[in-house]
Amino acid sequence: MTSKFEYSRSEHDTPLEYDQYISQMREKEFPMLNGKTYLDHAGTTLYSKSLIDNFSADLIANLYGNPHSNSTPSVVSGRRVDNVRARTLRFFNADPDHFDLVFVANATAAIKVVTDAFRDHQNRTSEKFWYGYHRDAHTSLVGVREISKNLHRCFKSDSEVESWIENSCPTGDGRVGLFAYPGQSNMTGRRLPLSWCQRIHSDSKRKRVYTLLDAAALATTAQLDFSDPAASPDFTALSFYKIFGFPDLGALIVRKSSGSILRQRRYFGGGTVDMVIALDDTWHAKRESLHEALEDGTLPFHSIIALDIAMATHQQLFGSMGRISSHTAFLIRTLHAAAVEMRHPNGAPLLAVYNDTAAVYGNAATQGATLAFNVLRTNGSVIGYGEVERAADTQGVFVRSGGLCNPGGVATHLAFSAKEMRAAYAAGHRCSQPHEIMMGRPTGVVRASLGAMSTLQDVTRLIEFLREEFTGITSSAECASEGSVTEVEQKVIGLTVKVEEAVKSQVLSKAKRWTRKMGRLVGPRNTTVVV
User: Fold this and answer.
1) What would the pLDDT profile of 149-195 be if each residue is shown by its tens digit?
2) pTM (2 d.p.)
3) Apex 484 CA angle, 478 and 485, nearest 5
4) Domains of the chain (ranges plus CATH)?
5) Parallel, antiparallel, or unpaired: how do β-strands 486-492 and 495-501 relate?
6) Helices 158-166 & 195-202, crossing angle to 10 degrees?
7) Distance of alpha carbon 312 from alpha carbon 453, whole angstroms
8) Which residues form the catalytic set?
9) Which of 31, 103, 203, 371 has the most neighbouring CB atoms within 10 Å?
10) C-alpha span between 162 and 208 (Å, rounded)
């Protein structure tokens, strides 16, 4: 596994020195970024050329069979999977004596493994379980409430969680409980206290309360550290493509001392049992190892082999996760500082930035490498987030927009009540087909998220794009006040186009004053040409 680039300098390099290294390395290792600005690392980060080259070379050089067979190629696959599992635990400082790792498709699949186990425990024992989740939870965590038979609570703030913990985590009649929260909001990037898990574990009264951490967003640019089992979550869900870009694979990391409840899951697939009787009886015996009892069917062994190479290549190119964390903290601090200072010519802010009062940009303990915002017109009204994303896309700047599968974040930061959200749905608003502005407010945000291979140039490009495209944009009402809109065919700057014109006589005489904004040519008095 070789690459022209290898990060071997001091972890104490200055932010600018490390950024310069990333910029140089990126030209060779991430050629797909040439001329593009990718700012959706919270969705998936990007794979390096060396990762793909090394993975391809490995597959060509070796013969891998299905690990469930006993042939030599199959045994080789099985051993490789075991080695990668152990290496992955080491990557997270997780002692295999205290932790197990279950390979799954992604973080959502990991959450579903836990959900299925609690559902089946509930059905086996006739004991309802209690479920609590934080308002910043991704939809995949919110969905767990549907199997808790109405014994659930959404914590609306950190202080509510703190109060609940201080009161010994009541779940009602001492029943089994599951408390779930994200290590980082996938919407705003704010990071939640990892200390909650240890505090819940520390009191003997809370022995029946389990913790589930959604680390998908957090793990992208932060080191997950399981070196202290007592301080670690019982269950941790994550996606490797958010860390390495490839493979498309996830994991559930389980504290072995808490693994017994996962064995309550009733379904079993191929490879998870030592014996099954199909005729005249319904008896079966599950595998002894926790991961073997939960990994249904043939594992995606090629993807697991790719994960092995991904970890090695990632370390070679970027250094430690701590170095990545420092780099992205520097970048997001720079981006946030520039974003909040952007102004229209009349002095009005260009952006509305959404964050938590406790978050400090540049402090990796409280804020990840994500900026959530909306673009404002000169009068303070909001430009649709989808319109901003489409304009960015035409300029080679790739962000994400919408509700981001974070309903609690939408309700909190965009001030939508439950009644208003129901009304929005009744009016036709859907996550997949949104009405971007409803009741005078945006129904989502624009999200720019940074990753290991992001650079200051990416930050600069986003700021330049926002300034060039949206500075001075006025509201629809302001445009209408200047004259009625008609459509005529005109030739402007050598293009035959359909023109929306406020004052027809100005179109040609003022053509030299046209500029490009939001994927259109914008002329005097907001005459626009779609291009």
Assistant:
1) 889 999 999 999 999 999 999 998 889 999 999 999 999 999 999 99
2) 0.89
3) 95
4) 1-58+319-404+444-473 (3.90.1150.10), 92-268 (3.40.640.10), 477-530 (no CATH)
5) antiparallel
6) 20
7) 16
8) 405
9) 371
10) 18
